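Sample entry was shown:

___
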Amino acid sequence: MNLLAWLESRDLIYQKTNENELSEKLEAKEICSYLGVDLTASSMHIGHLLPLRIMNILSEHGCKCIFLFGRGTTMIGDPSMRTKERPILSEYEIQNNLNSIKPQVDKLIPNIIYEDNATWLLGTNLIEFLREAGSKFSVNQMIGLETFKRRIDNNDTLSFLEFSYPILQSYDFYQLNKKHGCNLQIGGSDQWGNIINGVHFIKKMKSEETYGITLPLLLRGGKKMGKSSAGGVVWLDENKTTVFDFWQFWRNLPDLDVKSYMLKFTNIDAIEIDNMINGNINEAKKTLANHMTKWVHGEEKMKSANAKSISIFENNENSELDEIVLSEENVKLTKILVSAGFATSISDAKRKINSSSIALNGQSCTDQEYIIYKRDIETELIIGYGKKKKIKVK
């Protein structure tokens, strides 16, 4: 099985251009790929892991791989699948985000080449850019892109700032092609229109064939997961999402998603995956959690998270639980649920209480106005959310 066919067998490809040529180039190791990330946050999240997985595979296969920091395009904001403009960040914030994200990439992809599109975008002469690049794009085709068409159909504001984004992304591809011979762009399924624009732009500028790959959506329970878990965004930065919570995210995947995630994120043979799931699906989930945590955070932290899970959920030991120390004499349970990450808001906390998902020392609590009094906690109070989340209140 060639590499492209293997990637497809692992459910890692959603769309691709020029399949036969792309497959031949991959086998000959004549592919130089790039993945671009705008610097809108100080950390990547689990939504970035699928394209990073592809880049990791290509790097190990012997292909040149480029990680493009979108310092220039972050100043505009990618409008893909958004109904409102992104907030404009300062150059200082953008640079800080770059400095935080680079160490994460260093751990995930070997032999990666870094580029920053501010290098060419910030020094570009406007008139020269419009003459060189602007003339190669059809407004008629651009307003047909799903993102723009949806905005227009809904009478939502679409600024020229955002409208220029696909041109700038295409220009990035062109610059990387000139400098590195880059001939493959990788992105999420929402990037298909932008990627196709880049392929066509390079064809018009250099009469050269380039390629694009998009990846499938990550699903949770058969539904689009997006960037968030039940408790919010799952970040790669352990200061934003603890290593234990990261491990728990993968351990607590719905049963129907386990095979898909193991195919995508591990090299375990598909038949062996089926045997693991049919034999003991909870052990399969632990295998996945260990694999993902080791990749993102390293072996020692993976082992620590695994041991902590065994201590809490298998041995019923509370000593390893994270703690919330009450700083007030009385606090509403809903507020604690939000602080613990068990709920995203007070209203969400009330819904969880009402659905009998919250337990206090093992006893279900359905009182949405329940108040925890510090004087009533003799030693500690264990708050549980479902079967796999607990926290200690003191």
